[in-house]
Fold this protein.
Amino acid sequence: MALIVQKYGGTSVGNPERIKNVARRVAAHRAKGDQVVVVVSAMSGVTDSLIKLAKEITPLPSEREMDMLLATGEQQTIALTAIALQQLGIPATSLTGAQAGIVTDGVHTKAKIQNITPKKVHALLDAGNVVIVAGFQGETAEGHITTLGRGGSDLTAIALAAALKADLCQIYTDVDGVYTADPRIVPNAQKLAEISYDEMLELAGSGAKVMQSRSVEFAKKFGVVFEVRSSLNDNPGTIVKEETKSMEGAVIRGVSLDKNQAKITLVAVPDRPGVAARIFKALAEATINVDMIVQNVSHGAGTPATDLSFTMDKPDLLKAAKVIESLKSEVGYREALTDEKIGKLSIVGVGMRSHSGVAAKMFETLAKEAVNIEMISTSEIKISVVIELAKSEQAMKAVHKAFIG
Ligand code: ASP
Ligand code: MG
């Protein structure tokens, strides 16, 4: 008898028909004699509309009360799912995060799980129940309801799988698994049978979002192997696990494109110690997450000066431009140029560690497409370039074709 944790996201429980469909899936597993714990999100759109309601009262509602409010979204779904299972004649009991023993710190709206004592879950499973747990929520040691940050139901499922020592953890969503590229842009994209935690994290950080990154980090830390698959068909999904030798066979696991980036270039920044520290400290204080940074060598006569470019998420561009403007007289650069029309194209794969010439092949492919590379950054298993937005999809297709097919 296996213990399975299944998580269903907002779209998979988006209406009563879909909830009945989830109940049928759970029933099929249970018929094989498995014990099933189901984690559900709020029905799609519910969390957003609850946030909207609060904002109609005040733009800055208290975070404790937001947690109280948002936790009700998942609480609706657990009850509805239990009702659907009972309707099929299957004993089922729903539990809030707190009832399931999920204890978090007190950082409202983005709490971290501190420990899980799933006593009630075990007892209900042993009595023959399917147990349905509300995702995205927990409570503090003092008994205040908390939530785990947007998309946090994934984390609930992974953490519960670890705490219950589950044999299998399945994340059901509205896509079939993890693909070598976004199939809407690259029609040739293939579904991956498996991917390592690190590759999945690099792809997510480069714009290919299938799951909340924190939950993948958690899975890596606790060695939880999980499968991402669709709740709308029976196709096998993608297994996410620790890197294995065989994974190095492929040079590149996937290609991703992030169109949500913007760039600021400071022209003729005086080249002296402390300047970069001053600029990036000010940006950090304004909670702007800087992604890539490129600084050129000094040029010009007299005081040496250099150009400095960096990227950030597009919604942060205005705020970043203001911070930079406020430093103009102190730092003494000539002008600041902003550019929203960029795309960040990345290739990811653990095979990069053992294959050479990967960057050269990527750059050659871009050259053939007459795509100019504006910035480059690399990690051990990733190469990213910033390119012109208008050519970014064409570039993505070409790079996918060169490495994957
Ligand atoms: N309902 C929450 C959200 O929309 C949590 C989740 O869906 O995982 O962010
Ligand atoms: Mg969701």
Remarks:
- Residues 3-174 form a domain with the Carbamate kinase fold (CATH 3.40.1160.10).
